[in-house]
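check this one:
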Amino acid sequence: MIKRFIEEYTDKTFDIIVIGGGITGAAVAYDAAARGFSVALVEKEDFGWATSAATSKLIHGGLRYLQNIELGLVRESLRERLILENIASNLVYPIQFLVPGYKDPKRNKWLLRAGLTLYDILSYDRNRTWDKNKKMPNHSWLSKSQIMELEPEVRSNGMTGGSIYYDCQSIYPERLTLAFIKSAVRQGAEVSNYTKVVDFLYSDDRKVKGVKVENTLTGDTKNVNGSLVINCAGPWADIVLNLADTAGTSKHQIKRSEGIHILTRKFKTRHAVVMWTPSGRHFFTIPWRGYQLIGTTDKDYEGNPDKYQVSKKRIQELIDDTNDSIGDGNLKYEDVVYAWGGLRPLVDDQTEGTYESSRKYEIYDNASDGFDGLITVEGGKYTTSRYLAENVMEMVEKKLHRAPKDAITDKTFLVGCEIKNMNIFMLELKKEFHEFDSNTIDFLGRNYGSESKSIFELARQNPELSEIICEDGQILASVIYAIRNESAKTLKDILMRRTGVGNIGLPDKNILEKIAMTAAKEFNWDTSRVEQELKNINDSLRLPLE
């Protein structure tokens, strides 16, 4: 269970305060707590609400990093992909990718085969999974006719053949972030969403000794004491640094990259397909929850991250890229059922243009900027977040002059993921909860893992909560579970980062109102608050008009 510590906090001094509740902050908090440090994590919005929710739903080795000869980063990513398959057994699975090859140099079949052969070599241990059903073969080469038979939507003009290779899909990355948060709590970390850092605290010798936070749900402010503060604010990392940099001496500047995705049912593919724009940038179309997920983009973003929104222009650009690459070329704006976007933090010495930029990460000791007691983490990606946290702990050890316990996060199931064999688990779940719809059992089993039994029991105790509220089987009991057990505080938290109901577009009006009234009863919301919550979710899920 996740409970916000800020409501009852008095004057405890933590070893570590983590700023940011995305996947990086969650992983750092988990690793630190598992090694015996006392940890507090604060997040200004909801856990995993920004970049960590704006993904392509993939856990991947970074095939394109081979173009930059970043073999170490690729190997690290492939090793971490395997670990996430193991520790998040119900949330990470192998997925097939089809890659068509063409005559032009950037998509040449021989270059493609060489890259995939190297990818196979670097992922030599990919089948050492705890769940032996998660097997990934080497890549295979297909003729043009074989590809067209498998995927008629792929463009045949100029095609010379292609390949099938394997990576992994994270079916619900928001819940994967939440699993890291819960695992941190299990190890003793104290966490709080809707808790915004508004200033830093200093000792007499100007060493950082904590943060001043605002509880944005109440407006109250408190000083939270800590021996070391770790800035994991992602695209907001430099803004957090500016709070400390009262003298204006900070040299760090984050480059931000915008990535957007769209969902449509205009066409369907059997595999995830790698596509290329005319300029040579690759992107994906991926079957996901009955839709085609298309993305991502890479565009420089120069504005305030707090004001970022997906624009109609950016969606149309992705539609145009898709029409240039796959299908009948007639995908239209009105065919898009939902679009989402986010900002990726890239370290500040990378190459010009975000598509060519690396996804490496850097860990800074801000003592060199005059902020002793503060560490900033920049860059990185979802797949390597757990290992990034291990590297952060090396600096923590030096700063706190304490040898931590050995790492365990690569050897321990995340909370809710304590499943050695998913096939057996799902069969047992269907037997135990046979009265529920098969889609419901499948959806809850895979998205909630071992925690799904608690949701089924809620529905058994109150049959009204068995009502299906989403086309792939989600039920009303999950709304209650999100509020009571997972620190959901708004309707948007419930729909987007707990139940998944809103991740495939705006629900039917009647379903949306039923979810809102169920939440209102738990929260004791009045009519005005319910109307505001409904307006907020409607505004966020509708496609932009400009």
